[in-house]
Amino acid sequence: MPTAGKFVGAVTFAVLALWSSWLALPLFPDGRDPSWFYEVNGIAGLWVGWAFVGARAGRGYSAATGIGLTGSAMVLVMAMFFHASEEMLERALDRRYDGASEALVSIFEIGIEMTTWLATPLTGVALFCGGIVAAFLTEFVGQRLP
Question: Quick check: 26 pLDDT over 90?
Fold first, then answer.
């Protein structure tokens, strides 16, 4: 059921994911084109904000801290999984894998490789502090509006 907390959670986490994506874009190696980077990350933030953070609005600000940190981690993991899966599919179409199991394992290898490119203090602080702020805004609205 739609609530104001879910709406605010979806909007704030989508904005957070897009902002973090904007900060991370210059960190990609030369020649790497992160296709659908903003879109995938924004949708991941939207979904996490609606289904996870917004659904837990109204539990208090101490709970919101943990929910915000968990939500940020969920956005990060979801985005890396989707981007790594896309890269794996491109490699699979180039016939770089001998079998399906090798391709599936490479999703995690690619995700870890992408995370090492993008893991800087700026992106980490922005994502996790932004997650707490977004969860606090969601909590604020969730307590005041049904």
Answer: no
